[in-house]
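Lecture notes, unit on protein representations.

Consider one protein chain, 407 amino acids long.
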Amino acid sequence: MKKTKIAAIDVGSTKVCTIMADVNDAGELRILGVGTAASHGLERGVVVNARDAVASILQSVRKAEKMAGYRLKSAYVGISGEGMSSLNNRGFISIPHNDELVHTADRKRALEVARSVEVSDDQRLLHVIPRSYTLDGQGNIKNPVGMHGFRLNVETHIVTAPATSVQNLTKCVASLGIGIDGLVLKSLASAEAVLTEDERQNGVVLADIGGGTTDIGVFKDGSVSHTSTLPVGGHNVTNDIALGLGLPLSLAEEMKTKYGNVISSEKGGDDATVTENGHSVSYHDLCEIIGARVEELLRLILVQMPQTNYAEAFPSGLVLTGGSCNLSGITELGREATRLPVRIGIPVSVDGDNDNLRNPAYATSVGLLYWKMKNEGSQDWRTKRWDLHVFLPRFLGYFGSKYISPQ
């Protein structure tokens, strides 16, 4: 059975994760290599030091390559950060054929009309995702090709990203001789790994809480209807702990990870303490700080919603994923703060991973693989038109180049 090699690179504010895999003709995914490395040179999802970012990506890639046994040539890459923008737009065309039959070219033409939105010079078009089609007044059509009609309408979700963020990220990856199959908004990638079809259909909010950002995706009627990014994440919780308890950042992060609970009454009394590296702090105070910051983040997520009647609009509730949602008690606090059903989104099991990736921290990484399988050959990502660094690795490959130092 023929197998196709695919790969994903999630460049986050806390870690870089590279996954190399293959997929057979039956659509079965198998993990071949996984590499993670501490992330340096990124803040709130944006590259701030190219040399450090390249070093982190390289370390992650080399680990995955060693495990998989071959060199990584190209990958889908997750993107996040401040300045992401989204909107829903419609486009319509007439069907010119005598038989009034919708062809694939007609569907593509409708999408081209829908994507004709004004994008500022400092933004780049990232995704044009069809939500649904309407043919001669008949709505909720997922694929109009082969149907009869005269007027075809399409509703799309359009995502743009800051040009500098896109260029810096693609340059870092390309400088390693790795081609970019596509850039994918992290909330969309994570959704592929953790959401069920019923949740997408009924209405659900996904929040991928990373170290530097929280990526939000709203899904209804089987497709995405809203996306946004908050410049807040787990690092903000760590900073509050460090400031509130007078701890170094590294120790505050360690205490948060080992002892943190968003509900302070879960363990011990007011006089309980936790000790790490010679530093003792009140367990109650530690958890109170964590709980206050997480509750604030949960409320900020709701502020991003296009609707205010949350329970009616999102009956499937809120799905939390990302490394920073591994705090004890976060689902209970989530239900209390949002008045919605809340669950933790764990990536679906994949053959070959030995459950190592069954952790919310790897939702984007695993989701990028499923995004590639689902959207292979689609034209919703347009970076290849305007960024030379997408083609540069393939050109350099002819000369055996393995690494270019970032400028």
